[in-house]
Structure formats: C-alpha cells, structure tokens
Amino acid sequence: MSDYTIKNLTELDDVAAGRGVGLEARMARSALESEQVGVSYFRYDPGTRAPYGHKHQVQEEAYVVVSGSGRLKLEDEIIDVKQWDVIRIAPPVVRAFEAGPDGLEVIAVGGPRPEEGDGELVQDWWTD
C-alpha cells in the first residue's frame, strides 16, 4: 500500500442508486485503502429525506454540511443544519438527513470500524 491515495469523491460508485430517489452516496474508505478513517459524500435533491435512518456499533462520525441546508433527525430530536455546520454523532444514535429547498450536500467522516462494517439501517424510521 502506498503512503497516500487520491480519489475524487464524485467519480466513486453511487451506492445509493436504486435505494432512494433524489439521493446520492459515495463512500471512499475502500477506494482510499484506509484502515483508520472513512470519508463519504452525500447529496440530497431539494426536499429529499433519507429513506432510512442508520446507526453504528462502534464508529463515531462527524458530518460537514458543504452546501445547502436542511434538517437532521437524531433519535427523537430534529435540528436545522446549514452550510459549514459540523455535527459529531456517537455510534448508537440513529440519524438521517432531509434536504431543504436548495438541496443538501454533506461530507461524512468516520473513525475506525470493524472490517465487516458496523452500520445498521433503520427502515421507516423518520415518518411524519
């Protein structure tokens, strides 16, 4: 393995394709051959809400809103988010984003996790 790796997030496979309308997700951990950190890009069309929530067993994550605005549901709390907000979320907290009228772009950064992953999707979690 090289001492560094460079990848363009927009050139990675969209892992959300077919999982939800108006949502794009590109995960770079494997592409970067990273052992300690994961970096992912999420884009939501205006008004789009993630079709599921998710949580982790051990992986802490931080999210940076790089453009747009929207809302973030953390367990039973819904908060407004805007460009350049940074949100740290403990592993067991179920979370999901919803884009505002201008859409939403988010970079997620995660710490070490088990090799097989530790994310758990929670279907039909944010309904109102």
Short description:
The chain has 128 residues and is an all-beta fold. The chain has strands at 23-27, 38-44, 52-56, 61-74, 77-82, 86-89, 95-110, 119-123.
Give an account of the 3D structure.
With 128 residues, this protein is mainly β. The chain is built from no helices and eight strands. It has strands at 23-27, 38-44, 52-56, 61-74, 77-82, 86-89, 95-110, 119-123. Strands 1, 2, 4, 5, 6 and 7 form a six-stranded antiparallel sheet that branches. A two-stranded antiparallel sheet has the order 3-8. β4 and β5 (77-82) form a beta hairpin. The N and C termini lie far apart (47 Å). The mean pLDDT is 94.
Provide key terms for this protein:
single chain; 128 residues; mainly beta; six-stranded antiparallel β-sheet; two-stranded antiparallel sheet; 8 strands
Rg calc: 14 Å
SS strand fraction: over 45%
Mean pLDDT: 94
Span of the ends, CA to CA: 47 Å
For the biggest sheet, the summary is: 6 strands, antiparallel
Helix content: under 10%
Q: Which secondary-structure class do the elements indicate?
A: mainly beta
- General shape: globular
> What ranges have pLDDT less than 50 throughout 5 or more consecutive residues?
none
Number of strands: 8
